[in-house]
């Protein structure tokens, strides 16, 4: 028997460890290291298997030899990431190691996550680092990282690399690069040419329309005119208890009518006209897809979509849950319901619930409408955590398990009651609801709650007195701002971006300074950029256009079109857009430049006024030493010499938070490694004897001390 | 030729300057006296005034504007226009 040498490529180091453990005959693979890169050697009956990992994408799209700022650029090629960005220099080591491991290998396996991105990651490594021929490559397909599934996936690895998935992902990267690089460089360059300094401005195929959603909402709120209306707040007395009743007109539109209702009904008796009772069935919730999980995690724990994905990804790599980036709300029987439930029943917390489901015999989960051919809905694997889970990780894990369990249970039954009461032409309703059968609610606690409202026993013809009636004046409310989750849903509705990229795009909007606050508020810069793009090339910020490109990529996956055709069409469109924009570069630059200057001034100004003259305090720089400090804007007009020291390293930003001790606005510094330090310049200055009269020596002394302390 | 182009450019700038938004001073390219945002706000105010006067029985424009300025729910651009109209009631 010929013994083959196989190389398996995984997406992450932790995934490689799991795959190696599963593949090895004795489940103890040899752990080896080369240039600081860990890989594994496994023994199998077919021959030795080397399992190595990558760090996400090792290759990315880049321009073919043009300058860093030139545009438009169309020619591109796939290059090692280390050559594209200096911060990815470690990728070179990984490529070297994989290259050396691929020598004398007979067979290659892509074991990255089974989706478009995973397919592309594996493909680029096999193509460029290993130079593997497609005929000698195969694809491992799995949805969980459990030993049994990985073993089976390795044994039954499909030949070929699932090229339609690869082509769709390549097309997405190349399109994103084409739109992103050309438009972003054009915007940045136009500002530079307008002498407004360097500011990274970006837009893109998905980012543009996403930002437009936020900007449109901001405009809607700014132009909102509230309209008055009145509600009739009424209380009735029945069987010695007070109950609220609703007037049949929810919103009374005139004050005169509202007054009339209150006057006519005050202190009168209402007659029961009808008592209606019906049972209402509440079906168990669908199994979770990624957006469902993000929405539940935000609702119950306040986690942003990006954070939820990261937490779920960690649980998946620990083999505790199935692949989280799924669009499916269906649980196929092939995942082994009984096995999972039996495993869960060994975990103390879920023992009773899992045993109850198992004792019912039939295991038919509720199924949602959405489907994903690649992966089932998110579900637990049943594997008991090897280490105790804490905090957010434990919360998300618990949520997934309870939702999985709830899918196997019965509907909840509510008894809904409505009592109609009348007085002449005025009709009031009393609403009540009682839980008759809890069903799935018991399994999904504490994430499901029931509102019980017991009504008094009333019969037709009974009379109940009105104890209190008043008209409450209200105003219509403006539409609420998008939060990260509602924006994500909006993107999903508009079919822009993918499950994996949507949360990243939202993070980019914050990074670029286009939005602030957790309820996303569009900044002046965002309003201007979107306004200009709308004016000069509306298609770039048109969600419909982006959705049509997404549809084209879906077609590539289904084999209905090719990457080449989609790219050619996109380039033709982009070429025209770029020509239009370049023609108006000067106008764009001057408008953007003035907004950026305004924004810079806002970003560097404190709301706390100068304690000496009441002027505006700003971040300033000493022209001799280059050191930054807080100075008063009235320095030249009123000769105000008030100053405060500032930390001299890291990115500086002024926070909205004020110091509890002195009420001064606090500042935050952010180091390159992501470390943050929040401090109050005034308290710091006081504690370290910094005299704030602004004399050069005092400022120098305080700044020096501050620097020293931060460094230590 | 260059001088003519320069003159034309100056004329264009001068003409656009004539069309500055009465509220915020931003140059407008349309025939309106307000920029897009303030024009939309004014339009919404005109549309809502009928509902307001119906709701309260009778309401003067001044009363409407002062109520709008006091409300938390009123949008920023609407407040800008309301402030402007309070001091320039003939523009309503």
Rg measurement of chain A, Å: 32 Å
Structurally, the number of domains of chain A stands at 5
What ranges of chain B have pLDDT less than 50 throughout 5 or more consecutive residues? none
Which two chains share the most extensive interface?
A: A-B, 18 and 21 residues
Please, what is the average pLDDT of chain B?
A: 85
Q: Give the SSE order of chain B as H and E letters.
A: HHHH
> How much helicity do the residues of chain A have?
25-40%
Q: Estimate the strand proportion of chain B.
A: under 5%
Mean of all residue-level pLDDT scores of chain A: 88
The assigned structural class of chain A equals alpha+beta
Gyration radius from CA atoms of chain B, angstroms: 18 Å
Which sequence of strands runs across the widest sheet of chain A?
2-3-4-1-7-8-9
Number of helical elements of chain B: 4
Structural class of chain B: mainly alpha
Overall tally of structural domains of chain B: 1
Question: How many beta strands in the DSSP annotation of chain A?
Answer: 24
State the separation between the terminal residues of chain A, measured CA to CA.
64 Å
CATH class of the largest domain in chain A: Mainly Alpha
- Reported by name, the CATH topology of the largest domain in chain A is Topoisomerase I, domain 2
Number of helices of chain A: 21
User: CATH architecture of the largest domain in chain A, please?
Assistant: Orthogonal Bundle
């Amino acid at each position: 028997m010929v013994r083959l040498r196989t190389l398996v490529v995984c997406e992450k180091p932790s995934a490689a460890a799991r795959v190696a453990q599963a593949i090895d005959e004795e489940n103890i693979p040899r752990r080896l290291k080369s240039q600081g890169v860990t890989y594994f050697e496994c023994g199998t009956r077919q021959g030795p298997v080397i399992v190595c990992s990558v760090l996400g994408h090792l290759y990315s799209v880049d321009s073919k030899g043009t300058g860093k700022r030139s545009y438009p650029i169309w020619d591109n090629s796939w290059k090692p990431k280390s050559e594209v960005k200096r911060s990815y220099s470690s990728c070179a080591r990984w490529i070297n190691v994989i290259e050396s491991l691929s020598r004398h290998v007979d067979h290659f396996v892509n074991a990255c996550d089974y989706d478009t991105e995973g397919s592309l990651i594996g493909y680029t490594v096999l193509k460029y680092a290993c130079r593997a021929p497609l005929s000698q490559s195969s694809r491992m397909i799995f949805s969980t990282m459990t030993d049994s599934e990985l073993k089976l996936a390795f044994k039954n690895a499909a030949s070929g690399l699932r090229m339609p998935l690869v082509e769709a992902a390549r097309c997405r990267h190349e399109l994103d690069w084409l739109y992103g690089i050309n438009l972003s460089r054009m915007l940045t360059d136009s500002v530079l040419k307008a002498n407004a300094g360097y500011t990274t401005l970006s837009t893109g195929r998905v980012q543009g329309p996403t930002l437009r959603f936020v900007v449109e909402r901001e405009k809607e709120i700014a132009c909102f005119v509230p309209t008055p209306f009145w509600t009739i707040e009424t209380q009735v007395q029945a069987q010695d208890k007070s109950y609220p009743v609703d007037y049949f007109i929810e919103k009374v539109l005139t004050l005169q009518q509202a007054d009339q209702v209150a006057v006519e009904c005050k202190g009168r008796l209402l007659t029961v006209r009808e008592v209606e009772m019906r049972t209402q069935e509440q079906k168990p919730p669908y199994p979770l897809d990624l957006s469902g999980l993000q929405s539940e995690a935000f609702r119950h724990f306040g986690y942003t979509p990006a954070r939820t994905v990261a937490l779920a990804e960690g649980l998946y790599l620990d083999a505790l849950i199935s692949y989280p980036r799924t669009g499916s709300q269906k649980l196929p029987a092939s995942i082994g319901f009984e096995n999972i439930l039996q495993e869960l029943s060994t975990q103390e917390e879920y023992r009773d619930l899992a045993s109850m489901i198992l004792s019912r015999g039939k295991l038919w989960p509720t199924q949602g409408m959405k489907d994903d051919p690649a992966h089932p809905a998110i579900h637990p694997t049943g594997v008991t955590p090897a280490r105790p889970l804490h905090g957010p990780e434990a919360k998300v894990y618990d949520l997934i398990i309870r939702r999985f369990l709830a899918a196997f249970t019965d509907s909840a039954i509510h008894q809904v009651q409505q009592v109609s009461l009348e007085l002449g032409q005025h009709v009031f309703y009393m609403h009540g609801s009682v839980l008759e059968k809890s069903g799935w609610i018991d399994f999904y606690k504490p994430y499901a709650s029931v509102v019980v409202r017991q009504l008094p026993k009333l019969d037709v013809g009974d009379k109940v007195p009105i104890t209190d009636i008043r008209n409450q004046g209200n105003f219509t409310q403006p539409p609420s701002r998008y939060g990260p989750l509602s924006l994500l849903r909006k993107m999903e509705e508009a079919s822009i971006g993918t499950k994996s990229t949507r949360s990243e795009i939202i993070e980019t909007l914050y990074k670029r300074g286009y939005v602030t606050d957790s309820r996303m508020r569009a900044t002046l810069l965002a309003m201007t950029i979107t306004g200009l793009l709308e004016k000069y090339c509306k298609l770039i910020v048109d969600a419909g256009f982006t959705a049509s490109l997404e549809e084209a990529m879906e077609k590539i996956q289904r084999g209905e079109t090719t990457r080449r055709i989609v790219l050619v069409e996109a380039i033709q469109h982009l070429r025209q857009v770029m020509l239009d924009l370049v023609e108006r570069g000067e106008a764009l630059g001057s408008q953007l430049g003035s907004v950026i200057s305004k924004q810079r001034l806002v970003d560097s100004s404190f709301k706390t006024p100068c304690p000496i003259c009441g002027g505006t305090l700003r971040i300033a720089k000493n022209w001799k030493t280059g050191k930054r400090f807080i100075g008063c804007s009235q320095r030249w007009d009123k000769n105000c010499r008030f100053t405060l020291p500032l930390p001299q390293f890291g990115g500086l930003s002024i926070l909205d938070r004020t110091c509890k001790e002195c009420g001064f606005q606090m500042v935050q510094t952010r180091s390159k490694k992501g470390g943050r330090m929040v401090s109050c310049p005034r308290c710091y200055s006081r504690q370290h004897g910094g005299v704030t009269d602004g004399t050069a020596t005092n400022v120098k002394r305080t700044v020096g001390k501050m620097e020293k302390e931060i460094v230590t | 030729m260059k001088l003519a182009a320069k003159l034309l450019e100056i004329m264009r700038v001068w003409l656009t300057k004539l069309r500055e938004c009465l509220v915020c001073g931003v140059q407008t390219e349309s025939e309106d006296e307000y920029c897009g945002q303030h024009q939309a706000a004014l339009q919404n105010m005109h549309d809502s005034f009928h509902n307001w006067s119906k709701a309260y029985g009778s309401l003067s424009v001044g009363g409407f504007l002062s109520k709008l300025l006091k409300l938390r729910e009123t949008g920023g651009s609407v407040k800008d226009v309301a402030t402007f109209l309070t001091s320039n009631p003939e523009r309503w």
